[in-house]
Predict the 3D structure of the following.
Amino acid sequence: MQAVKTLGQFIIERQEDFPYAKGELSRLLRDIGIAAKIVNREVNKAGLVDILGAVGNTNVQGEEQKKLDVFANEQFIAALSSGGECCGIASEENEDIIKINNTVSKNAKYVVAMDPLDGSSNIDVNVSIGTIFSIYRRVSISGDCTMEDFMQKGTEQVAAGCITYGSSTMLMYTTGKGVNGFTLDPSIGEFCLSHSQMKTPDQGFIYSINEGNYVHFPEGVKKFIKYCQEEDNATKRPYSSRYIGSLVADFHRNLLKGGIFIYPTTAKSPQGKLRLLYECNPLAFLIEQAGGVASTGFKRILEVQPTDLHQREPIFIGSKNMVKLAEDFMAKYSPVTA
Ligand code: P6P
């Protein structure tokens, strides 16, 4: 029987990857894994709430019935606040940064940007959802964390990952030494190594975009979509259109199978819809570590200088060849005006 390697064991084994750290980042990743297991438990029974007879705002146990994204946010904040390795959080659920200055965290070196439960509107139709996280070393010297700690380019991330709550629950993360995936074994309550050193194909045959916004897409995106739809045996076109409407699920599938996910500028989202700090940057770190590319359509996502906590960016992410080709279409048909 193949030896099972848990997330905790793996993190400890890889401790030598961070020669100057004394286990802080390892403990921070462990804290995220713990919160993910708690969120997973609630996500899995979310569909049962009506059956279990939750009444109004309280469930059958008399507990306040929280929206799952609020619940997830609280769980990750609690785990990071008590773990002692994080001095600040930027969350999709919170307008401002959350300063963690309790006694256990006063010497914490890291800050975390996160989307605690992305795609939560899909829960009541039983579609996979996810958590996305990004970890930086603080740049402020001491005391409370500052906005400066979060206004770092994606290239400065020390770690990033995502959790997909789907037919199985899987956590994947990188510290800059490749991407490893861990599948939750509910029978032992542990994330177990299931996908070692994940790589995404240079060429895929899936394109993921909400074509309902077609009329408002940049011309370069329209031309790229038509390219994907053309008949051409040599390049195995037409490609398949796959769009779940849940970022982590679309990202996860395309990373494993190869493909491109695009959320460009639209009339409704003139800067794009997805958030730089806790959606685009962490997924960009993951995809680059898996051999793929993440672009705004014109430049590397990780090189974008953040100016606002919740700023949005257009994103073209996935297989190297496909993203590069999409960038060529953007340069030719939707050139950036100086
Ligand atoms: P649209 C979910 O609401 C989300 O934030 C991402 O998970 C998903 O990729 C995107 O929005 C879908 O947006 O405009 O296509 O419904």
Observations:
- The CA atoms of residues 2 and 193 lie 11 Å apart.
